[in-house]
Amino acid sequence: MQQNPGRLGILVTHSYLNNDDCRSDHGDKAREQAYTTHDSAVPGEKNDGEELWQKLVKRHDFVMTLNGHVVGDGTGYLEIRNVQGRTVHQILATTSSASWVVRGICSCWSSGRTGGRCR
Known about the structure:
The protein is an alpha/beta fold. The protein has one domain (9-110). 17% of the residues lie in helices and 21% in strands. It contains 2 helices and 4 strands. It is globular and about 35 Å long. The protein starts with 8 loop residues before the first strand and ends in a 9-residue tail after the last helix.
């Protein structure tokens, strides 16, 4: 992002937002979470959704995050402003059908679902 000032970013990743409209956060013991990135057996440094938000997304000019991975209804949406004041649409869409993803996003926006439970 620093090498492309003035460009808007979209983060596409495996695990970021859960279907409770909150970012995955291995440090949040108050919320039941079936899985966070830190549970993975894959070696190397890991960042869950909350860490990606704190370290990357909120600090740069992102407009959207998109992830899958989460079971249940496979959908989630959180709308929050980054440090620049830009609204970042954080979307969970667990599916292999692109048209379903678009319908899910439009449904979230038209219903006023803003993921107000988490910030």
